[in-house]
TrEMBL record:
Keywords annotated in UniProt: DNA-binding, Transcription, Transcription regulation
GO molecular function list: DNA binding
A single GO BP: regulation of DNA-templated transcription
Organism, scientific name: Thalassorhabdomicrobium marinisediminis
Keyword Transcription regulation recorded: yes
CDD domains on file: LuxR_C_like
Name this polypeptide is given: LuxR family transcriptional regulator
InterPro entries noted in UniProt: Sig_transdc_resp-reg_C-effctor, TF_LuxR_autoind-bd_dom, TF_LuxR_autoind-bd_dom_sf, Tscrpt_reg_LuxR_C, WH-like_DNA-bd_sf
Length: 202
């Protein structure tokens, strides 16, 4: 069974580029990787294709993997035809969703110029996106005290204000925030607060 372990592996398979959206919430992904050709990205953005793109629509309505050529949704703006003029002649789309309470899903688009993706390649791409999706899952080990402190950070309170509101020392607040940053792999308290908000934990 073929396994993809790095972005280099993905780039070797998707020779015309790829796009990943991980843990998409209400509107935006927690993380986005766009390795599609810049000229196509500019054309796609300029013409506002996102809402009309049958691949995107398939991603939001399905779980699994499919070749672009097998998508039967309407394409009134001829997005896929236009993609071919930029060298994205063959593609695969994958989407995964684990039923988390935030309703988040992850998906990817992968393109080639020379041939259709083989089934084992599509399966490997799906497993790769699914692995990233799980890796970006909300942590389940944050304590109520840590979440409370992060909510106050999100609300713009300073360390002294948080300590006063909670009736604890500034040192105790610092420790809660430090623990939360470690669990979230965040660099700053503001980043940690943004992450838990995106995860719908606060």
């Amino acid at each position: 069974m073929r396994e993809l372990v790095s972005t280099d592996d993905v780039a070797e398979l998707a020779t015309k580029g790829y796009y990943l959206a991980l843990r998409v919430g209400f509107a935006f992904p927690l993380e986005e990787v766009n390795e599609l050709p810049p000229a196509w990205v500019e054309h796609y953005t300029t013409h506002r294709f996102m809402l009309h793109d049958p691949v995107i629509r398939w991603n939001y309505a399905n779980i699994g993997a499919i070749r672009w050529s097998e998508i039967t949704l309407d394409d009134p703006m001829r997005v896929l035809d236009q993609a071919q003029t930029f060298g994205l002649r063959y593609g695969a789309a994958v989407a995964c969703f684990d039923g988390d309470r935030g309703g988040q899903r992850s998906f990817g688009h992968f393109a080639r110029a020379d041939r259709e993706f083989e089934q084992d390649e599509i399966d490997a791409l799906y497993r790769y996106v699914e692995k990233l999706h799980r890796a970006k899952a909300p942590p389940t080990n944050l304590t109520a005290a840590e979440l409370e402190a992060l909510k106050m950070v999100m609300d713009g309170l300073r360390l002294k204000q948080i300590a006063h509101a909670l009736g604890v020392t500034e040192g105790a607040v610092k420790q809660r925030l430090k623990n939360a940053k470690t669990k979230l792999n965040a660099q700053t308290s503001a980043q940690a607060a943004a992450m838990v908000k995106e995860f719908n934990l606060i």
